[in-house]
């Protein structure tokens, strides 16, 4: 997971800015995020079914092969269509890696699901931070285009190493086969969780392709300076999820999820009005803290609700619900940014996250 995650931070920071410099508008940039999420929307339920039917290891290993191809495609991309192809390959890799990894953890001890899900997230973020150091170091010494090419060549090498290790060294525990041929019939409580995932995924995706463009336009700063401002938030995400997941094991899932979403909502709604990048950096530390608490608890709650033999399919549908929201969000956020108000997407994001937090406490407060 560490090796497969190296490109995440650098890609999220540099993709919208790099493409924007080629005179591409925000709607087209949002479409690059939509291609990625639509691919996952289609693939993840299929991956979940395959995990329950054929096992975890081959699909987990193949994720890194697709990541390798995606990073090579990013390295050589010189047109909008090439970037769309790279995002498509990345979406397949992400579908395979995350559904497989979370299903493997769900096969483990129930009492430590929150801690394990948090450890998974923290490990991924640490890989992203190391990869970001590589990418932004290159950007500090080379022209943007050349730094982009070399950075993604390095990420391709890391993903290829992950593929070799997953094939040769990784041995997941035996997976349960109970009811693996029966159709998945979602219970009402599972449907409610998918609704929350869909709503929060849409709201978060509203600002994903535009917040860096907004900050760059507002403060007229380089990508390196913006990345440095977000470094403390990244460090929080690299450490806190493991501990926050453990809190959900002790105190329940719903309070952590709701508190995290509500806190993230308040940060997002205030972001457009902050007068300095220093305040933005401080608020994003709070934002990272909020999501570090909510994400592992949400995955652990789904694991609590997943019966043996159907875990892969349930995680596949959960990820698909998130991707449905994430597929619609970037285009809507880009349109709000270009055609209405630069602050509108942030306000809508905050309102929807508050609604999601309220639904969590209403529907899941008494869930054991």
Descriptive notes:
It contains 13 helices and no strands. The chain has helices spanning 8-20, 26-54, 57-76, 80-106, 113-141, 144-168, 188-207, 211-219, 223-251, 253-270, 277-305, 311-339, 344-364. 81% of the residues lie in helices and 0% in strands. The chain is mainly alpha-helical.
The level of helicity is over 70%
Which regions contain 5 or more consecutive residues with pLDDT less than 50? none
**What's the rounded overall pLDDT mean?**
81
Q: Bin the strand percentage.
A: under 5%
SS content category: mainly alpha
Largest sheet: none
What is the H-and-E element order?
A: HHHHHHHHHHHHH
Tell the overall outline.
Answer: globular
Radius of gyration: 19 Å
User: What is the β-strand count?
Assistant: 0
Distance between the termini: 30 Å
How many H/I helices? Answer: 13
List the helices and strands and how they pair.
Blueprint: H1 8-20, H2 26-54, H3 57-76, H4 80-106, H5 113-141, H6 144-168, H7 188-207, H8 211-219, H9 223-251, H10 253-270, H11 277-305, H12 311-339, H13 344-364
Helix pairs in contact: 2-4, 2-12, 3-4, 3-6, 4-5, 4-12, 5-6, 5-9, 5-11, 7-12, 7-13, 9-10, 9-11, 10-11, 10-13
Features:
368 residues; single chain; mainly alpha
Short description:
The protein contains 13 helices and no strands.
């Amino acid at each position: 997971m560490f090796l497969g995650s190296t490109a995440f931070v650098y890609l999220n920071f540099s993709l919208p800015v790099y493409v924007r410099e080629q005179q591409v508008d925000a709607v087209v940039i949002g479409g690059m995020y939509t291609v990625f999420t639509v691919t996952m929307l289609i693939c993840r339920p299929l991956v979940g079914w395959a995990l329950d039917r054929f096992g975890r290891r081959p699909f987990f290993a193949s994720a890194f092969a697709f990541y390798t191809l995606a990073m090579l495609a990013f390295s050589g991309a010189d047109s909008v269509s090439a970037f769309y192809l790279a995002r498509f390959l990345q979406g397949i890799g992400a579908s395979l890696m995350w559904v497989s990894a979370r299903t493997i953890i769900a096969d483990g001890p129930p009492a430590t699901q929150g801690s394990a899900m948090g450890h998974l997230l923290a490990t991924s973020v640490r890989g992203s931070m190391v990869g970001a150091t590589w990418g932004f170091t290159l950007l500090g010494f080379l022209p943007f285009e050349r730094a982009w090419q070399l950075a993604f060549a390095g990420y391709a090498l890391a993903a290829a190493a992950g593929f070799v290790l997953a094939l040769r060294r990784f041995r997941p525990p035996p997976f349960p086969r109970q009811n693996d041929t029966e159709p998945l019939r979602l219970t009402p409580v599972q449907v409610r969780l998918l609704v929350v995932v869909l709503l929060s995924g849409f709201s978060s995706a509203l600002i994903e392709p535009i917040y860096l463009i907004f900050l760059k336009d507002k403060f007229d700063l380089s990508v390196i300076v913006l990345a440095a401002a977000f470094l403390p938030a990244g460090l929080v995400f690299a450490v806190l999820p493991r501990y926050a997941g453990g809190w959900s094991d002790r105190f329940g899932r719903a309070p952590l999820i709701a508190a995290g979403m509500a806190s993230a909502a308040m940060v997002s709604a205030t972001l457009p009005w902050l007068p300095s990048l220093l305040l933005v950096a401080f608020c994003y530390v709070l934002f990272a803290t909020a999501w570090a608490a909510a994400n592992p608890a949400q995955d652990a709650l789904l694991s609590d609700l997943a019966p043996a033999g159907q875990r892969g399919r349930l995680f596949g549908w959960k990820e698909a619900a998130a991707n449905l929201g994430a597929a619609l969000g970037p285009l809507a956020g880009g349109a709000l940014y270009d055609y209405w108000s630069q602050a509108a997407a942030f306000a809508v994001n905050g309102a929807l996250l508050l609604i999601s937090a309220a639904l969590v406490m209403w529907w899941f407060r008494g869930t054991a």
